[in-house]
Design brief:
heterodimer; A: three-stranded antiparallel β-sheet; 10% helix; 16% strand; B: Naphthalene 1,2-dioxygenase Alpha Subunit, Chain A, domain 1; seven-stranded antiparallel β-sheet; four-stranded antiparallel β-sheet; 5 helices; 20 strands
């Protein structure tokens, strides 16, 4: 998968992605390349220039398999969904 | 693959509006020889045209008792604006030149004046320290006001913070009217989407170049192309305000010339200007320019209706999203996946621009009056 190259500045970073694929291909302006599983890890790796780590941090690293999400808190009436009329 | 990202703590307590930048305030056609008021980046601004046709911009609050100069019966007299409440009169630079009942005009009787540039059918205004306006370039969209292009355009008010519109426009799964689904057409399997960031130019570019694709009925009808096409869809975002979507179609194998000219290609340029009104509302300027079927009213109507429909769908969705985000406690969690590659790049550039452009909150009139 070759990234399209449109911008031609000195400090251009690129991330190529085939829709439907789980892998991103990142290319730094210094020529370093790496593959990663999500854009958070990929941008972290790219922005580490010039000290790119050996690997891109993969998503779900450090998340336990039995991760329990917290509730999503609602503070104000306008944030509350649902009908606003009394039920009779 | 997902990644949970905690948002920066305290985000809602700080202003998220990027200062020391140029923003689209209006279309040129909205401003004439009448007073016109609009709130840009939380600042109330008055716009009008001098008798020579050039646009001027100043604070939209009379220094006397804060009456909005854009409200009737305020009006223009030559190259001055007369406040409708007591008749305070200001020149085109915002300087008060007459007050009722006396000849002495107090020295602080002056409205903040804003740098204004009229270009590409837009009226651009600089929000921030006027001294910095010359060092910040204004991004271009020349086809909006150029021979060889026909443009349809409008503006929708959005009851949502500007960053939601940026996320929305940079989101690869966001369906664009041009081709019935950015993701999901047959060519998708073979066409990578490339996100490029130029740190020096502060541009985020997302491109999808298909060498050989089906020609959708809309293009076949309006361009007359028969058979398969080369299709390029390129997002070019100049944070914080100007978003361009370049769409190029041509018969397979027809590419631009070496010198950059492109007589064999058909171009649609979609332009959005994302201008904050307040922290929680945005002016959503949209325009569609094309270089083919220039006189065809049917094509103009189709593009105008299609784009406006899509914009309104986004407005409904983002208005709802703003309601659930407003006042959320800090540290809410988000997930980002591959479609968010471009959106995350845009957020980072905007955050860097916000930090670079941050300055003290401008003096309020009360502070000035006490000096």
């Amino acid at each position: 998968m070759a990234p399209t190259r449109v911008l031609d500045g000195d400090r251009v970073t690129r991330v190529a992605w085939l829709p439907g694929s789980d892998r991103l291909l990142g290319e730094c302006s210094c020529g370093s390349r790496a593959e990663g599983g999500d854009p958070i890890g990929m941008w972290e790796w790219l922005l580490a220039h010039p000290d790119h780590p050996a690997q891109v941090t993969e998503p779900d690293a450090g998340t336990p398999v039995d991760h329990v999400p917290p509730p999503h808190r609602v503070l104000r009436p306008e944030q509350a969904a649902g009908p606003r009329t009394p039920l009779r | 693959m997902v990644r949970v990202t905690a948002d920066a703590p305290g985000r809602d307590r700080m202003t998220s509006i990027v200062r020391n930048q140029w923003y689209v305030a209006a279309y040129g056609r909205e401003i004439g020889r009448e007073v016109f008021g609009r709130t840009i980046c939380g600042e109330s601004i008055l716009f009008w045209r001098r008798e020579d046709g050039t646009v001027t911009a100043m604070s939209d609050r009379c220094v006397h008792r804060r009456f909005p100069l854009s409200e009737k019966p305020s009006h223009l007299v030559g190259d001055t604006v007369v406040c409708g409440y007591h008749g305070f009169t200001y020149d085109a630079d915002g300087k008060c030149v007459a007050v009722p009942g006396q000849t002495r005009v107090p020295r602080t009787a002056r409205l903040k004046s804003y740098p204004v540039v009229e270009q590409d059918s837009f009226v651009w205004v600089f929000i921030g320290d006027d001294d910095r306006s010359d060092s910040v370039p204004i991004p271009r969209a020349p086809w909006l006001d150029q021979e060889g292009y026909t443009t349809v355009s409008g503006m929708e008010p959005l009851a949502a913070r500007a960053s939601l519109l940026v996320d929305n426009l940079m989101d690869l799964s966001h369906e664009t009217y041009l081709h019935g689904g950015y993701i999901g057409t047959p060519e998708v399997a073979n066409t990578p989407i490339t996100t490029e960031v130029d740190e020096d130019a502060q541009v985020v570019y997302v491109s999808r170049h298909m060498d050989d694709a089906d020609c959708p009925p809309f293009y076949a009808k309006s361009t007359g192309i028969q058979g398969r096409i080369v299709r390029w869809q390129d997002i070019e975002f100049h944070p914080p305000c100007l978003y361009l979507l370049h769409s190029r179609v041509a018969p397979v194998g027809v590419l631009p010339d070496e010198d950059g000219s492109d007589p064999g290609g058909f171009h649609v340029e979609v332009v959005y200007a994302i201008t904050p009104e307040t922290e929680h509302s945005t002016h959503d300027f949209w325009a569609v320019a094309r270089d083919f079927a220039l006189e065809d009213e049917g094509v103009s109507d189709f593009l105008r209706e299609s784009n406006r429909t899509v914009v309104l769908q986004d407005v409904v969705a983002l208005d709802a999203l703003e309601r659930v985000l407003a006042g959320e406690p800090d540290g809410y969690q988000e997930l980002s996946i591959n479609i968010d590659t471009g959106g995350l790049a845009a957020r980072r550039i905007i955050a860097a621009q916000a930090a670079a452009g941050a300055e003290q909150v401008p003096d309020s009139p009360a502070t000035l009056a006490s000096r």
